[in-house]
Amino acid sequence: MNENALCWLNGTLLPLSAASIPVNDHGLLYGDGVFEGIRIYGRRAFRLQRHLDRLVLSARAIALNIPYGCDDLTAAIQQLIDAFDAESGYIRVMVTRGPGSLGLNPKGCEQPNMIIIADQLSMVDQTSREQGARLIISSVRRLPADGLDPRIKSLNYLNHILAKIEANHAGVDEAVLLNAQGRVAEGTADNIFIVRDACLLTPPCTEGALEGITRELILDLAEAAGIEVRVQPLGVYDLYAADECFLTGTGAELIPVASIDQRRIGQCPGPIFRKLQQDFAAVVAAECQR
Ligand code: PMP
């Protein structure tokens, strides 16, 4: 935690170190809640409306009422950014089911907690960001859509955390989760892309990936740049055989991949990655520079 980190908690702005919620909140007891991660660039929240829209849909899917409207949340985030002592950073928005009894039934949870944190976030070290991240294929599978739809950005990340622990134990940067059928889903907190024969490929979200906002932008940028794009199921072999591979996410931004299960990826960073990274930076500059 950065000492300048701030928290907007149910309408009150305070230092993150001073923010607290009851320990019987079902967000803590059961991971019952939803969240978003948003980047601040040039003191502006990047693609804020997209993130708020996804938060609202995640909350609706788990039958959770967000106690504030989108305008209130936008104002709260602006208040946090104005008070936050940095040009760039990361915002975490969380809505928990709120305090209740020890049983899992959310019926008695009457007051959701609305928590917004402004801090810094770094997903991988600078060397991996520049020279490429090393990945493993995790033995932990992505939860199936008929268990928990991957489009819901819930506080339940335990299988992603187990995959990350596996990556830590293997001494690498990140893990790829497969779906129950053994096809590629996504990283622990990022979407995955490959390039093969100058064509950009990523799995459809129905394969077990979050509908990433960075993923969506990268697909748009690739099309605009005249790069052939295919959203199609991918196997582990496709990752090993890739000419290029990279990860996308709000926290991750764009990270080139150097190896997967110790198989070196063709080029890292490759030319398509570089082009998309440049175009991504241009969009950020256009939307967030005053
Ligand atoms: N997948 C998962 C599981 C994530 O947590 C994230 C981060 N939000 C992503 C993908 C990337 O999504 P986005 O680009 O919207 O941050």
Protein architecture, described:
This protein is of the alpha+beta class. The chain folds into two domains: 114 residues, 2-Layer Sandwich (D-amino Acid Aminotransferase, Chain A, domain 1); 163 residues, D-amino Acid Aminotransferase, subunit A, domain 2 (D-amino Acid Aminotransferase, Chain A, domain 2). The chain has eight helices and 15 strands. Strand 8 and strand 9 form a beta hairpin. The protein is globular and about 55 Å long. The chain starts with 5 loop residues before the first strand and ends with a helix. Keywords: Amino-acid biosynthesis, Aminotransferase, Branched-chain amino acid biosynthesis, Folate biosynthesis, Pyridoxal phosphate, Transferase.
Which term fits the overall shape? globular
Structural class of the helices, strands and pairings? alpha+beta
What small molecules does this complex bind? 4'-deoxy-4'-aminopyridoxal-5'-phosphate
Helix content: 25-40%
Please provide the count of β strands. 15
The third-level CATH topology of the largest domain is D-amino Acid Aminotransferase, Chain A, domain 2
SSE ordering: EEHEEHHEEHEHEEEEHEHEEEH
CA radius of gyration: 19 Å
Q: What count of structural domains?
A: 2
The CATH class of the largest domain turns out to be Alpha Beta
Main beta-sheet strand count, sense and barrel state: 9 strands, mixed
Question: Can you count the helices?
Answer: 8
